[in-house]
Amino acid sequence: MSLQLQLLRGILRLIAKPLFAATQQAGPARLGLVLSSLGLPLPSGVSVRRSTDHHDWLKIVPKEGAEAQSKTLIWFHGGAYVSGSNFTHRGLLGRLARAGRCEVIGINYPLAPENPAPAGFDAGLDAISSLGLPSGR
34, 77, 84, 136: least buried by Cβ within 10 Å? Predict the structure, then answer.
């Protein structure tokens, strides 16, 4: 396990988990995840483009050979539908793009409890559709 990953894991255990356990509310868990994500920043060697339409997505492409990419990875961040975002997972998205030599599109979706299911799922399918990719529906 890398030093960065060990640091992130430790921060999650020290900040995010206790905040959520103490309150059982999404807000503190979200804050803990944002603070924890600062330990795993966007890596060098990738370029980032944000959505310009009403959908909230982030495209990360390796700078080297980015023009010839034919693979796309669609990523829905973790967080059990109550926390997480492209910001909190940007380090992972950048590493996936570099390692896979592909573009990675991270899709944000509405979080619960403010947006109950299936809001997140439907927003994800809508975002995929806006990118011109097949949604499976």
Answer: 136
Q: What is the mean pLDDT of residues 14-28?
A: 71
Specify the pTM. 0.73
Backbone torsion region of residue 76, taken as left when φ is above 0, otherwise alpha when ψ lies between -120 and 50, otherwise beta: beta
28, 46: one domain: no
pLDDT score recorded for residue 32: 74
CA-to-CA distance for 50 and 57, rounded, in angstroms?
Answer: 6
Specify the pLDDT at position 33: 76
Rounded Cα distance, 136 and 23, in Å: 38
Q: State whether 107 and 61 are in the same domain.
A: yes
What is the C-alpha separation between 95 and 97, in angstroms, rounded? 5
CB within 8 Å of 104: residues ≥ 6 apart = 59, 60, 61, 72, 73, 75, 93, 94, 96, 97
Residues 73 and 118 in one domain: yes
Q: How many domains does the chain have?
A: 2
